[in-house]
Amino acid sequence: MTPTAMTATAEFRAAGTDLSERRRSGVSTGPLIDISAAPDMIGMHWDADGSVRLGAFTTIAAIAADKRLAAAYPGIAASAQGLATPQIRHLATLGGNLAQRSRCWYFRNPHIACLKKGGPDCPARSGNHLYHVAFDLGPCVAPHPSTMAAALLAYEAKVTTDRRNSITIGDLLGDGSNGGADNALQPGEMIRSVELPSPLQGERALYKRAISRTHAEWPLVEICARAVVKDGTFQFVRLAAGGIAPVPLRLHAVEAALQDRKATAAALANAAEQATSGAMPLPMTGYKLDLLKGVVHDLLEGLAP
Amino acid sequence: MSTMTINGKLAPLPDDPDALLVDVVRDALDLTGTKLVCGAGVCGACTVLVDGEPAVSCLMPARSAANTNVTTVEGIGATKLHPVQKAFMAHDALQCGFCTPGFIVEAASFHDSWRAAKGTAVPSREEIGAALSGHLCRCGAYDGIFRAVADACAGRFDGSDIMPPRMEARDKVTGSAKYTVDIHHDGQLEGVILRSPFAHARIGELDLAVARAMPGVSAVIALLGDDRIVRYVGEPIAAVAAINRRTALAAIAAIKFHSERLPSAVGLDEARKADAPVVFEKSARKKAGNVSEGGGAPAAWKGNVRGPSAAFSKKPKKVRSWVDGARAANNPLLVEGIFRTGTQQHACLEPHAAVARFDGDRLTVHVSTQAVFHVMELIAKRYKLDHDKVRVIADHVGGGFGSKAALGVETTTAIELAREAKAPVRVAYDRHEELSVTGYRPATEMKIALLPSEQGELKALSLTAYADTGAATNSTIAALARLIYPAEAKELADFDVISNLPAGAPFRGPGGPPMAFALEQAIDEAALRMKLDPIALRKRWDPDPNRQRLYDWALGLDVWRNRKPFAAQSGRYRRGVGVATGYWLYLWQPGSKVEVAVKGGRLIASTATQDIGTGTRTVIANTVAREFGLEPHEIEVRIGDSRLPEGPGSGGSRVTASVIPPMLLAIEQLKAAIQQNAKRQPVPGSNAPWREMLAASPDLSASSVRPEDSRQMAPGIESPLRQVGLLGWIFGWMMRRFSNLAIGAGVPSSVQVIEVEVDTWLGHVRVLNVHTGIAVGKIAAPALAHSQAAGAVIQGVGYALYEAREVDSRTGDVLSGGMEDYRIPGIADTPMISVHFDQGGFDHVLGGSVGIGEVATVPTSPAVANAICNATGVRLTELPLRPDRLIAALKGRAAA
């Protein structure tokens, strides 16, 4: 496969923190369309009901630093604080984070063909997939790279593009069955904003990623978790995980195991065990299931009173 | 045309949509303090301020800098140094300095906003670690960086300028230090190498005509060997010099060739199979590289396996029968195991790079090298030039760690392209090249058996090591187990497993860390089974006088005495303490020469060595200054230029022990000459007699060659090779004859005591505290030796926990070719490090000092593993000790 065959369609460029690396390496060679923010596409726009609309051009650093956002949506703020590095967060945008391409080391190598570059199959599946999916939901085994997508999924956020209004994160990213793409945006479709529903009374939220070092590493597993615990009982709970599947996943089995249950140590441990429900690990990614249970357990302990 | 304001001046921005800010800053504006390293936003070396906020200029389209205010490191201390710059200098928070500008920009920004919000409150390590998490330092200067940032925020560097302990620190914190990649001659072209996409193939005719005809292309050359066979993905095929990198890349893409794919074998397991395709036929074996610091002895080849190299064995048959007997008798003291280590990349932040330029028949090459003089000799030999026609220069070198000790392809390619193009040519590797084809410490599989006697002595040791050397040979791992822990019998065998992967190279104590990973865990296990204190057992089994003193120091550490019993904890987080020992050979380079001169009243010390971040400039300045009663910054040190008197290579920890003795002799001669020429003696009772004498002295110089060491030695100090008898003597003779390295008496030694915390849920290991005790004689530059010792621990933590090259075992592609996938420690991974120097043991060396670089990193990985075992009861046998492996071991199953 020649480098020119890889990405022939035009790509949008906002801050370019993902695209610049692919341009330098030769993975992306097609035309560029530089986009910049219209006034309503940047910053935080609060509604009277306490909900907020985040412009797609809002930087990750702005999301990470905003005190009102951190109070209302602590899982969003913590996720933004936990991703990449300070110098990238200052440039990178929310829309770019959602629409970024895979970090798979086969995809990022311009000399290796793969599904996402129009190739016939996924070289990671039969090759070295140490950092890949543990929920094998599609032909490509690279996990989705967007930390913000997992957080927004936990918040059941809606996305507005220049063509579609209030679509779900699932609509935006697809179900992982299309190995050739990292999202389900149509060619030329651009993310404009993200709407977060108003937070629940008494809700708390946390974010955590499992990595080998302390900071600045793509997650092996990451989870954003929200809960309302009243009188020791889970009245509401949402968990969404990244790093484990071609798209961020809601951990429905964990949620079901906790809904209306007492937050006892045994209940938390039992719920954490449910995190791997439906998992289909690859030969090298079985460890991610242990990490998944570990991160869930850690977060549930943090959310329980 | 759009513009930006950069360091207060207006500058145009290119229209090219693919131009990145880093390229505009470095190439168009020649602000080379900003460095390009990873090209992926991971390492932070390219950080600049955009409207006051730190930003990765390597990922920022130049276009988006339009109408912004950009500040580079050159703008940070332009009028007067920023407090952070002074603090970095004072705390020696840098070594090679290549990452330093990025750190300075980020730390200055953090400092300014911290001070605005919090006055002179001191930020915590966690706050500093998070703020600087987007920066990587390969030398491991983090310990000093923590202290520097905390002290600057506390307002301790608001005042006047300071004199740094490191001679060139000011140039490094201001970005004015020029490295090879920063050299720019008029008319300079950019060279790029076309590399093999195949693990094994025979390359047919190259069609270079299309590339040659492309506008902007000045030279196209073939780089294939005479057999036209490529043996790994990335082996050079051809090279192009063009007006810029993009044109050169387009030209190499236009080179067409036919190839015949050959069957390949990738890695230890594939290449050892009986039916594995052979990488080097007999006639081609000379093409293999060398992974050791010296030459090696011949060994038998069988297919892709070279070995055994077993000359350091002692009664090996006895070992076999005793171990077999012990196993049959279920002797509980017999420790057996298989240990594996990962492939460690040097990951120098300055890539391998060379800039070649011909002026008539004179060739000047700036090279990012560890050996200016030796590389000059090699260039002269290869191109049949006289020594005085070749000049190799390396003012500053952005890390080497063993990978830049030889004449590299980047240098020969730059020379050959410059000759063909009749113009200066730069070749600077990109990050993928740097992390794939520039060498590595080979992965290993080691089988060990250790048998104590009934009396509790070490009776027998067996160690067999297979090294994953790629297209190289001469791994020395098992043999190193001969020179420590004497035993009645030792069976030591080294094998190279050659395969279709890039060639390994020497890396900081080459076979020492893997050997220690196996041996020091086996010793730990023996102590457990013998119910003995692991340090006390080492003290019993290891008579070396330098290490005996270190064991006494270690036994007295609170962290050791207060450690919890073995595997006594049951919670999620468990803490443990481990110990391990390391040693390296004391090497020096015969023929090393130093000239010391007084010129215009100023002292100048010259030798053709180089400073790769290890502190050689400062070692020289400190020594001269001390002898004359002056300040180090009053001394001018000339190094990094092959025209100076022959100096040592920066490898094998040899520089300090090679330059101090001849320097002291030269100083003695110079002092005598100054006194002879003095018209009057200094005022009696003067505090600075030499300052007065020097001021009045005519220009004089003296030089001396490295003398042999004294034969008068302290008790127990001898050449480690003495233990190996006649074969040891032959080995020493060969090293001196063929590698120009003398193996001296006395053994540089280290003992590390390490405390870890294990998160048993997430498989995460945090190294909390490291006590590193080091015996390398007198410390010539204390602050810098501390930096070396701490940096060695941090690299050792990387080797222990994070670092491993990953490849595709079918195609031979290196997958971990970027800094996000090849994971080196960040600042927040730095433990508290306490350094203890035992300054005895080398009084037979003039000046009493030997090198520290390698010995300081040897014991870290086994000490971490032993600490994890102490905490959890689980012994981890494969490096790196990643979460997946720790989780698997805790659950009692095999990792993938």
UniProtKB/TrEMBL annotation, chain A:
What sequence ranges are listed for the domain FAD-binding PCMH-type? Answer: 1-201
Q: Which PROSITE patterns does the entry mention?
A: FAD_PCMH
Single GO molecular function = FAD binding
Q: What is this protein called?
A: Molybdopterin dehydrogenase
Which top-level group of life is the source organism from?
Bacteria
**Origin organism of this chain?**
Bradyrhizobium jicamae
From TrEMBL, chain B:
Q: Which UniProt keywords apply?
A: Iron, Metal-binding, Molybdenum, Oxidoreductase
Q: Which InterPro entries match?
A: 2Fe-2S-bd, 2Fe-2S-bd_dom_sf, 2Fe-2S_ferredoxin-like_sf, 2Fe-2S_ferredoxin-type, 2Fe2S_fd_BS, Ald_Oxase/Xan_DH_a/b, Ald_Oxase/Xan_DH_a/b_sf, Ald_Oxase/xanthine_DH-like
Q: Does the keyword Chaperone apply?
A: no
Q: Under the GO molecular function aspect, what terms does this record hold?
A: 2 iron, 2 sulfur cluster binding; iron ion binding; oxidoreductase activity
Oxidoreductase in keyword set: yes
> The 2Fe-2S ferredoxin-type domain covers which part of the protein?
1-76
A Pfam family annotated for this chain is: Fer2_2
| Family under the similarity heading | Belongs to the xanthine dehydrogenase family.
Entry's PANTHER family?
ALDEHYDE OXIDASE 1-RELATED, XANTHINE DEHYDROGENASE
- What name appears for this protein in its UniProt entry? Dehydrogenase
